[in-house]
Amino acid sequence: MTVQELPGAASYRPTPPPAWKPRTDPAPLLPDPEPYRVLGTDAAADFAPAVLRRLYAELVRGRRYNTQATALTKQGRLAVYPSSTGQEACEVAAALVLEERDWLFPSYRDTLAAVARGLDPVEALTLLRGDWHTGYDPREHRIAPLSTPLATQLPHAVGLAHAARLKGDDVVALAMVGDGGTSEGDFHEALNFAAVWQAPVVFLVQNNGFAISVPLAKQTAAPSLAHKAVGYGMPGRLVDGNDAAAVHQVLSEAVARARRGGGPTLVEAVTYRVEAHTNADDATRYRGDAEVEAWRQHDPIKLLERDLTERGLLDEDGVREAAEQAEEMAARLRERMNADAELDPMDLFAHVYAEQTAQLREQAAQLRAELDAEAEGDHR
Amino acid sequence: MTTVAARQAAKPATMAQALQRAMRDAMAEDPTVHVMGEDVGTLGGVFRVTDGLAKEFGEDRCTDTPLAEAGILGTAVGMAMYGLRPVVEMQFDAFAYPAFEQLVSHVSRMRNRTRGAMPMPLVVRIPYGGGIGGVEHHSDSSEVYYMATPGLHVVTPATVADAYGLLRAAIASDDPVVFLEPKRLYWSKSDWSPDAPAAVEPIGRAVVRRSGRSATLITYGPSVPVCLEAAEAAQAEGWDLEVVDLRSLVPFDDETVCASVRRTGRAIVVHESTGFAGPGAEIAARVTERCFHHLEAPVLRVAGFDIPYPPPMLERHHLPGVDRVLDAVARLQWEAGS
């Protein structure tokens, strides 16, 4: 005899709960099955040529910036450089889709995005040169400090965007993170908060294939990183991260959506870290040349150059002009980075608190005395 | 700090009420003050410290967040970057640990990292300490983790008046403040009027709660009432104990503490936190370094045992009580020194 058949069973059966239904329809949130592409497709014809030319010039400059910064590590002028070579389309597009009032939240690999947004490259490289941590005023440029602890900058972007919305400002925050960063708890919490608050944020995941040495397959079992969006109730977009036009378009749409109150978007840009993790890393220990070579053939600059040339939007003069501008930038950067950084050890105590504590005043005096003694010793 | 508009007669109030009033007054005066945390809105917090704030100021100003401490503090950082003054509630001491990375890697460093360009004027309120019969993860004394992090202020009130005054000072501070609320004192009462805190000094000043000549008890938060009780009991033994309430662990008020120890010549640090590498280790070292020639006996520590916080039915054996304080007083080498 089952419970239902017992006499009086109805009286102790719980009230049937309301019928379950999903809180949002997941179908429109799902990413495309293939990364979205523009270059080499019919969609390219609809793209504003001025934007494409701008992207091209910035990509060429960005590549030169990457090679120059890497060279500076070999000369001991940078402590370390995590290169974004091969990822310039993402870096540049992330900067170009934002308005001046918007905010960029870069990770340590995203100095190029900050530079493309207009930040002085020397200020952008301060952290990696090692003369201070953040070399610029974040509020002046609306660029958050380069974040080293992975994904921890994402909740900051959500909070800032939320605060702006509460204030009635139509400001959008664009936060950058890598594929490895999506495994961090802060990635999850940031996306969840963003969706619950409908914060005007765009999350750009650059899936460059590796977290130092660990490939994506050891990072996630998700169908794609873009699919993770669905679980939070926000749309996920999958885009070819080496197709500058496609990244620009997808990010622009996400920014516009956020700005009009439509809430956050997760964008996965599929790209490749052509260089090692940093100059201190040896990529031959975990990947083969053939793989790297295949990605070099799918290079963001080559893709854009081919498309522009085929459609008559770029000629040899244009290519040369972009290269010359990039070379000028590199020469200036080299020259400025070859000058020794100006350091004042007393700065170590200057910004710990708004007002120095008695203990820090004591310690500052100790260092001052040591410096004075050192200087006196030098004179002797 | 601005004074509260209406002068009110003193009447019994609890520490929880004083804390609520501090947030309410700060929110009324400054539209950039936002309260956020788990259950702080509709419910008014599990200890009811944010009672009525969501109703009075709306849910945008007093917000029930998703249940994720790193996310709460991380988003608060972003809000502070945009010019708000978030007041974050962590529901319990041991529930604050997921937010530790945000606190250490960002909150404490942001001003320094940006050469002062981007300060972090936010408050992290954390109910802490034992003595309320809480099950595991509800009674930690976590202050030493925060004290060891440069860039944070660490404050803890022991009286109803200080609860108001120090929280107002914390919210007004341009630096991040970890505001530790002794949860077993939430329901402690005293006659208090909201305008009394006009007399409260800024963060960083200790106060002598009881004057005495024989020895100094250096303490804070939930152990202050214990020390005051011990000082009363000690009178019968002929000891006249001074009790210093630190109020602020960072910045540390060496001046007030050392002035007292130099007067009495003997000192005991009393706290619930574990003794090994606990706050008392730092305090005893500081006092010894600065007052060595005035000391008649080694600086002693009365602290929680070096064990994970006990289950509620055993916590009374762990918490430093009056007897343990008096035992330590007896060990202050009275025969040799005097």
Walkthrough of the structure:
The complex is a heterodimer of chains A (380) and B (338). In chain A, strands 1-2-3-7-6 form a five-stranded parallel beta sheet, sandwiched between helices. Chain A has 380 residues and is of the alpha/beta class. Chain A folds into two domains: 312 residues, 3-Layer(aba) Sandwich (Rossmann fold), CATH 3.40.50.970; 35 residues. Chain A is globular, with a radius of gyration of 25 Å. The mean pLDDT of chain A is 94. Chain B is α/β, with parallel strands linked by helices and 338 residues long. Chain B folds into two domains: 186 residues, Rossmann fold; 127 residues, Rossmann fold (3-Layer(aba) Sandwich), CATH 3.40.50. In chain B, 34% of the residues lie in helices and 20% in strands. In chain B, helix 2 links the parallel strand 2 and strand 3. The radius of gyration of chain B is 20 Å and the shape is globular. The termini of chain B are far apart.
Number of domains of chain B: 2
Question: Count of helices of chain B?
Answer: 13
| Low-confidence runs of at least 5 consecutive residues of chain B | 1-6
Helix content of chain B: 25-40%
Helix tally of chain A equals 15
Examine the coordinates and then state which fold CATH places here, giving the name of the CATH topology of the largest domain in chain A.
Rossmann fold
Average pLDDT reading of chain B? 94
Approximately what portion of the residues of chain A adopt beta-strand conformation?
5-15%
The fourth-level CATH homologous superfamily of the largest domain in chain A is: Thiamin diphosphate (ThDP)-binding fold, Pyr/PP domains
- Biggest sheet of chain A, open or closed, and with what strands and sense? 5 strands, parallel
**Second rung of CATH, namely the architecture of the largest domain in chain B:** 3-Layer(aba) Sandwich
First-to-last CA distance of chain B: 46 Å
Q: CATH class of the largest domain in chain B, anyone?
A: Alpha Beta
The interface involving the most residues is between: A-B, 41 and 47 residues
Protein name (chain B): 3-methyl-2-oxobutanoate dehydrogenase (2-methylpropanoyl-transferring)
Pfam families (chain B): Transket_pyr, Transketolase_C
EC number (chain B): 1.2.4.4
GO molecular function (chain B): branched-chain 2-oxo acid dehydrogenase activity; magnesium ion binding
